[in-house]
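Quick one:
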Amino acid sequence: MTNCKLTDDFIVPQVSLVPGSDVKVQRHKLNSLRTTNSSVYIGDLAVLVYGRETLSCSSLTGRQSGAHKDVESKPQLDSTKLDAIFGE
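Output:
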């Protein structure tokens, strides 16, 4: 499914990450993700979906770290977007 998002003076095509998902990204940015390493691809896709700032201030689970019990836990990433990234 393709939608479009108006950005300044032009329209940027958006595509769903998973059929039927409300999680959409710009088609040209998704097509620019090129790597043979699946871990790098997932990381780049997460940056595309969430943005670097959100990723730096969040965690996958939202739970307290066992290694850093003195540090406050970060909020959990949006599970709908995580499901789309992992293809669920």
